[in-house]
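chain below, 481 aa
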Amino acid sequence: MSLYDAIVVGSGPNGLSAAIVLARAGLSVLVREANATIGGGTRSLELTLPGYLHDVCSAVHPMAVASPFFRSLPLRDYGLDWIDPPLSLAHPFDDAPPASLERGIDATGATVHPDSAAYRRLLAPLVGSWDKLAPEILAPPLHFPHSPIAMAGFGLRALWSASTLARIAFGGKRARALFAGLAAHSMVALDEPATAAIGLVLAAAGHAGGWPIPGGGSQRIADALVGYFRSLGGVIETNAKVDVLESLPPSRAVMLDLTPRHVMRVAATRLPANYLRRLGRFTYGPGVFKIDWALAEPIPWTYAECRLAGTLHLGGRLQEIEAGEKEAWTGQHSERPFVLLAQPSLFDPARAPAGRHTAWAYCHVPNGSTRDLTEVIESQVERFAPGFRDIILARHTKNCVQLEESNANLVGGDIGGGSNNLRQLLARPVLAADPYRTPAEGLYICSASTPPGGGVHGMCGYHAARSALKHTFGKSGSDAR
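prediction:
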């Protein structure tokens, strides 16, 4: 007899989402988490000094508020509140005020003059159809779209490289740089095919729903998911690492919120050799070097607009961002990398003692890098905020190896669950009509290594659980709602 109907290995947003879908269908579900705290990439800890709360990985969440699944859950009832900074994003320059991503397309366009009209032409159709587009973008790649016209308009541009689209769509440096920074979230060299997709999605998401931060830290996302899951009768065990599937209690289904490397290890005796070889061809992208700071005061940005933004993209012009991302992609360390920075305490006083602040930043580096990039990153911040180093009270750093030690799914420091190259946008982790279902009876993969990939949205877990309901439990799609 099975002790549980289903067991989920891993308590990241996708694992918790899979658990919720199954529990809402009336199944008994156990979640096992290797760490002492739940959440995976959505955890918050005092990393520097007492009273300074830092997000361990993700901090800003445009795709969480875009997620159809998250929007279906009563997460506010379980303590999740979103905070919208006045500006979603600021992109400073050395010699001019920043470009910014604002809720209004025209407001954003005004900051990328002379490309205001071009920016509207590119983004307005996507934002206007966002409610139809978001579910399609967050669906498995091999599906018949419910909104084919909207998807066709998106897909024609999304398949371009970010470098090409930036140069064709825009004539000025400001819009080109803003788009390059958005596309650089892909962690792929910007001249690669389909890198435009992530830039378009993040821009449209910013206009449609903003780039919010969770009040009290990203841990609140995981806590809200756990609270709702437990209200459905779900059970969670922490400090419960799973090395092999045979160590699990009996169940009808097992959902693995793990990357292919770890799936191959824990399920080696259950999966056929051919499938293991296919998983072995899965590739991981560049890693990150991350710094968390405790600060005596707000970052002294040269331009006041930067103090209104939850997120900063530090990298100057398109050419500089291209060069930095290319170097990380080809195994080199850039001396002027593209830096992503978040400053949540400006908008959420729960993050630091009164009058004090927190911030974090990271840059992309070769997968598995152990190089200390503290000086390089802080030089990029100082470039746009002279005097920054003078306000640092404490810092906490992690290289790629240390990131993986803290969360095994961050293979080589890759925070996206695998490379976002064109092949793996379509074949993630393998090319299949149902990429969540493995050849082993009742065994599914629900991590960011499945579609739609990285980001805090829960949709990988949602789709995997729906597959399990259909193929293992014989339940219809309506049971997953």
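Residues 4-47+56-81+215-283+416-480 form a domain with the FAD/NAD(P)-binding domain fold (CATH 3.50.50.60). The CA atoms of residues 16 and 225 lie 6 Å apart.
thats it, cya
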